[in-house]
Amino acid sequence: MNKIRGYLLNAAKNKKIEITESLVNIPDDKNLKLSQANNKLILILKDSSDTTLNGYALIPKKEYKLSDGDLIKIDENITYSVFYEQGKRKSLDNPPDQANKKMKIASIFKTAKASPAIKTAAKQGDGVWKKLRPNVIAYIPENIKETSKVASFDLDGTLIKTKSGKRFPVDENDWVLLFPNITEKLKEISEDFKLVLFTNQRGLHNADDKVNAFKVKVTNILEKLGLTFLVFISTDSDKYRKPSPGMWDLLKNVTEADVEESFYVGDAAGRPGNKKLKINKDHSLADRLFAQNVGLKFYTPEEYFLDAPKSTYDPPKFDPSKVETGVYTIDLPKTPEMILMVGSPASGKSTFCKKVLIPAGYVYVNRDTLKTAQACLNAVKKALQEKKSVVVDNTNPSEEARKQFVLCAKNFKVPCRAFVMDVNTDMARHNNKFRQFTENTHQQVNDIIIYTYFKNFVQPEKKEGIDEIKKIEFKLDFENSDVGKYYRKFFLEK
Ligand SMILES: [Mg+2]
């Protein structure tokens, strides 16, 4: 049998499972097996578990054909993406249980033929589904209540749970209202507030069939509640995905909304869980941090619907509000030297060079622009020959990466210093998202590159031939204070 050129990748752990044999066990879930047939990877689950494929629970013993870009989530910390080495990213398949049925629901945007889906949707208060951004879908009812008071809710785990009892839905019909009094509570609040749903649904990314099935699901839920909601659905990891505050800003484009008078309810609240009582810990802090980012009062579903006491929660690992503002003050010698910057992507190396070293006359050497290590080395030699100071703005994570440069400094008898950016994984990931959200031109660095950097990182030491190792604390220095305020929003989910 030919080997399929496909593999599974866990970005967070930088773990890759290559499919080298006809049958492979996935180590993190002994129930899972991968095989191959007709140039496709096939996933089979032996016994029931919480593992999902693109957000849908797997049915034991069933064969699932995997496509490029599919997500296999084993638990909160273990997600594998499917890659085919030759293949281009395709749209995701139908929900797994529908894969063989070829479910057909006409697009609600195309109104030519009235499929059952369209009829159901049309009953929902005669509103319209709109694509507000490439990755944000919204349902805007015709008559929005005239008030700036907003009662807003997450969907999964907040208003509904699965009917099947599985942790993740098996299809778009697999839901029931979370608590018996949900309808009554919402009816009550709708007297004075406009009702809004904010939901993250990355599984819908590039998957039109699933988007249509999800619209039907939402329509059915709202019909069951008998209430009018504005609905915002984020389908990607951009600035509209909670906890980032983007969906609230879109709401304000559509209708009046006052943060002070409004509130938000969600189950991703960072609650620690309780093993004795068999309560799982929350999968993230996305809802709590979304409310905090916007400035909304926040409740968990239990607090809001059941009047439960305020819950405790684990704070996020990285708090952007604690990052110091200021300017760098570094002593620089009058004689030539070499500085090796050391730091992950998005750790602020280039900004530091631009603010401190380039104005001081340092020749700037960077692999992104020069392309190869050899070209960098040539540029460094040229600068030192001309008796100029030089800075190498590469990630320089290991002794191996730094060696040639250190040697070069020795040959020219100039001191060599390493400036190590004091930025951890979460801060780098936050900075990376901040750039992605604020700079149109900035090429997004995949998180895996950041994780790989930290995995390979070896603290520089004097025994490598480096004369001084200096820690550089990351400092925020924004001329535009709105940008500074935005940096202090939470972008990571836990
Ligand atoms: Mg939820």
From TrEMBL:
- Residue ranges annotated as coiled coil are none
This one is known as Bifunctional polynucleotide phosphatase/kinase
Q: Which species?
A: Nicrophorus vespilloides (Boreal carrion beetle)
Pfam families the record matches? AAA_33, PNK3P
| NCBIfam families in UniProt | DNA-3'-Pase, HAD-SF-IIIA
Matching entries from SUPFAM superfamilies are given as: HAD-like (SSF56784), P-loop containing nucleoside triphosphate hydrolases (SSF52540)
Superkingdom field: Eukaryota
